[in-house]
Amino acid sequence: MSDDFTLPEDKAERMERCAIFYTDVVPHNHALGLRLVDVVAAEATVELPYAENLVGNPETGVIAGGAVTTLIDATCGTAVFLKLGRFAPLVTLDLRIDYLRPARPGIVLTCVAECYRLTRQVAFVRALVHQGDPGHPVASAQGTFMRTEE
Amino acid sequence: MTTMSESTTPPLAELVRQVRKTREYKRLTDAIPYTRFMGIGVENLAGEMLCRMAFNPRNIGNSLIPALHGGTLGALLESAAVFELLLQTNTERVPKVISLTVDFLRSGKPQDTFAKAFITRQGRRVANVRVDAWQDDRTRPIASAHALFLLSEQ
Q1: Beta-carbon separation of A59 and B103 below 8 A
Q2: What Pfam families would the database entry show (chain B) (predicted)?
Q3: What is the ipTM of this complex?
Q4: Residue A74 — pLDDT band, cuts 50, 70, 90?
Q5: Which residues lie closer than 8 Å to A84 by C-beta, 6 or more apart?
Q6: Whole-angstrom distance between the N-terminal and C-terminal Cα of chain A?
Q7: Residues of A with CB below 8 A from B93's CB?
Q8: Which of chain B's residues have a Cβ under 8 Å away from the Cβ of A67?
Q9: How far away is chain B from the Cα of A27, in angstroms, using its nearest Cα?
Q10: Nearest CA to CA, how far is B44 from chain A (Å)?
Q11: Cβ of B96 under 8 Å from any chain A Cβ?
């Protein structure tokens, strides 16, 4: 069962292996400055630092929804890899995002995603985005992913 | 009327009013940092207002295939809905997204992507919008979305 794509047991090594999806391997994650900050069981935590070029409303300075969508999509994908315990080809089937409160300008956005159900072909993930207090999330999301390997 | 000192850029509401008349869409899309960053613009093609996301290598999500990042397609769909509301209704503030549901139908190739938004209902406070995104063949969309927006009262 062991191959190059199997995730190591050691947490620091798992972090290191998963972190490559936030560098040049996934150019858009890198372009937005996404960074993996934690992995626990089937749960990934990723941060999106505030940046002027990601502002969607120049009157309020609030970050664009599109950047939040990318943050959620990326974090959810990592959560699926953690649940699988290995890297496998994945595609996002759908993603639903509810915006619960406006994001405050200038503050990092943190996404926590958990893969709570995995079948042979489909992975189900839920996620929350917050700005320091997970009890007062900015957005909540649910996504499904398809495993595209044989 | 408000005036902005040390700037020739009009406030967004004034810019939106001007662009509705002049159809100089680039002035509006360039005024929003994220759409400028993403290479998302509004164009009048054969009399129809469409959104285009120009291909840029930094929009890639999977380098092996290669394919566009799902998040960039979500961004294009949401931006197309926002610009449709700003340019086709009398909303003068950027509408706030309440919820967004994206279906990913096919992988996005490394090339320009188009989107068209349809306002399915516009109430006093909430608008429902559907959006499709495609590349070579409009009848084979690569992603579609439905979104709810809160329209700020003037």
Answers
A1: no
A2: 4HBT_3 (PF13622)
A3: 0.94
A4: very high
A5: A118, A123, A147
A6: 15
A7: 57, 59
A8: 34, 71, 75
A9: 5
A10: 22
A11: yes
On whether the CB atoms of residues A147 and A117 are closer than 8 A, the answer is no
User: What's the CA gap between B71 and B77, in Å, rounded?
Assistant: 10
User: Which tokens belong to A49?
Assistant: 């630092």
CA distance A129 to A103: 9
Query: Measured between alpha carbons, how far is A11 from A34 in angstroms, rounded to an integer?
Result: 20
Q: What is the pLDDT of residues A18-66, one digit of tens each?
A: 999 999 899 999 999 999 999 999 999 999 999 999 999 999 999 999 9
Q: Residue type for B49, please?
A: M
Structure tokens that stand for A28 in this block? 């858009």
Query: Phi-psi category of A16—alpha, beta or left, where left has phi over 0 and alpha has psi -120 to 50?
Result: alpha
Q: pTM for the full model?
A: 0.94
B74 contacts A73? CB cut-off 8 A: yes
Residues in chain B: 154
- Which regions of B56-105 does DSSP assign to beta strands (E)? 60-62, 67-68, 96-104
Give the number of A-B residue pairs with CB atoms closer than 8 Å. Answer: 131
Separation of alpha carbons B81 and B143, rounded Å? 14
